[in-house]
Design goal:
homotetramer; mainly alpha; DNA-binding
Chain lengths: 206, 206, 206, 206
DNA sequence: GATGAATGAGGCTTCATTCAT
DNA sequence: TATGAATGAAGCCTCATTCAT
């Protein structure tokens, strides 16, 4: 069945087109100020057609969010996996996180706006999936840190906390870049992040 | 005019009551899933009365947000101002930030839900005010850091970035506490935050 | 509280006005071909106002139906209660049933159209109430028949069945009058109904 | 043209299959809560294919209704035609009416639900055909009654009214059986129907 | 001042029908 | 001939806001 395959490919193309347009509009106006009609118009379909691909506006929104985030998670994991040594791993993790944010600034501004997850009661399942995905990602990073402790490269501290701190620093920089000014590349901040995270800010007396 | 004063005091009391109730409901259900009627019912006023105190639902929301945040900013600044020495200042800053979050967990969950700022087009002014308030707070913290550099206690790095990193770590811990589990006090994390921020996580060979 | 009373009276007046207009339109076009907007326009209110009086289109429909039917039931029971003797009671029952149908031909044509009860899944409760009301009415009539049997005026047959038969004859006549032609008064058929129900159609040999 | 014939036969088979499935779904959910897509799925055709057999959802519905009803009418007429004597004819008419209802309870529940005829404005023609079919049936029964009067078996009353009464009694019993409880066979009620219709319910003094 | 009934624009979603393949 | 993806009109309902009392 060649035909079935082509059908499926076409279906996915259309679906992706809708997601792409939806992303732009959601990013610009937020979930509640975006109408399904707008998304339909932007992606060149009729309103009803949107519902052939997504059950509801909310499901469309969540699909866009989770798929994009998983793309980011996956990119980071793959990049980190190819490196050896905690320090290199942490560096690459930071760099690829920044990379994703630069390449998807529009998408990321959704998080700056922040209406992710302020959805209605009905979509607990979808919400939980997002949280689970995030938790999985954190677990992965924890393992990286744990390994660094085992090899004696990192101090013996609670790895959960260390991951929290690292992601906090990364997010804080990203947030600033997204909101205040996008001039310059985020990537130039990598050494700085590593420096603070690894060495701290205290001036050591000598 | 004694009377005018009492009037004003009454006015402020009522206004505060509305804000207090609104905070609870917004925190629980998000901006878009909260109706003005609900807020009115909760605060014991008629719907129309709400509009004697606030121009619109959005303005009510923003007022609540900015006033509460400024309370936090102010608390932190005051606490920090009373201390001497960068390290003490940073410690107190972290502690009072955590303190506020613990005491206002419900309010803070608004940020976890995240619909702050995903407001409609019309309210640029309000949004900007929030951003400006935040920027002011960051400036204050920057000054603290700068002073630490001047005294030789902190490394010579970009103070903006250092503030970013510190706030990132604090926020990350707060976020985790708010979402994952509220067991235990956030304040126990203060030493950890300081340790990472000041000393980093690298195990120093000796 | 004089005011509260007047408020309630006003509320009921408006509610009745909506019901009255809704009845006409539902009768003319059926439940599914009638829009809430039409009802609103006909009764001189805004769409939203309709929802101050009724939870949903369906609930409005059911309210209209049950209230009107109960009016009929009550009218019949009262009329029957004032008479003595089964035969008089049956006569009056038939007559007042016809009376109601003549006076409410428009309403009754709803049953000819027939979309009562073909409502969505959600309104089981409302549907059941209608059935219960009907059952109550049948019970009342059964008691009348039972009494007639006890006094020896009627044959010893299953009273349920006798009520069924009587109502069947009445309904059949009503249906014909409503659909085929409304010329002449339904009431002229009373003697005929009684004759068939009481004496049957067989020509007795003598 | 052998081929043309087979084609036609095939066409009718498919059409019948659609009608059969449609009947089940309409009976279960009513006209407005049934979608063409459901009927298509149930009968194993594509949505578009349904429209090769029926002009519209409404026409499909009406076709199903009229064809099934005509089946009933025909069955009754055939059965009645084979009998001699009014009383036998009336008995057989009642019995075969009940027979049809028992065998087609699902279909008949459409009438209990009641959305027959509450169709949109456009289908006057279809509606009228149903009414005409019913009128034809009534005419046939009238002739039976008239004959009974002629032979002196029945009283000299308006035959239309007598038919109305008989059908009223039959329908009333059927309705009760369909709604309240399907336990036991409807056919056991035949003698009762005949008894009331022929002899009435009055206890004759002697 | 305070009220809360009334408003009506606008959103999401459904589904009968069509038509290119 | 058969398909089923695409359409888009239309319906129900919500809720921020107003204004007569």
């Amino acid at each position: 069945m060649e035909k079935a395959k082509r059908k499926e490919r076409e279906f996915n193309l259309r679906r992706a087109e809708i997601l792409e347009q939806a992303e732009k509009i959601f990013a610009a106006k937020g979930f509640y100020n975006t109408t399904v009609a707008e998304i339909a118009a932007a992606s060149g379909f009729a309103v009803g057609t949107i519902y052939l691909f997504f059950e509801s506006k909310e499901q469309l929104y969540t699909a866009m969010l989770t798929e994009k985030l998983n793309m980011m998670y996956e990119g980071i994991r793959k990049a980190v996996g190819q490196e050896a040594g905690v320090f290199r791993k942490i560096e690459v993790l930071t760099a690829s996180n920044f990379q994703f944010i630069e390449s998807n600034a529009e998408f990321c501004s959704i998080f700056v706006r922040g209406d992710h997850l302020s959805l209605s009661e009905g979509s607990e399942a979808l919400r939980e999936r997002m949280i689970r995905d995030y938790a999985d990602h954190v677990s992965f990073l924890e393992e990286v840190i744990r390994e660094g402790i085992r090899t004696g490269d990192l101090k013996k501290m609670d790895p959960r906390m260390m991951v929290s701190a690292l992601l906090g620093i990364i997010n804080s920089c990203s947030f600033k870049w997204l909101t205040v000014a996008k001039e310059g590349s985020l990537k130039t901040k990598v050494p700085f992040v590593l420096d603070i995270f690894l060495e701290g800010v205290r001036q050591n007396a000598h």
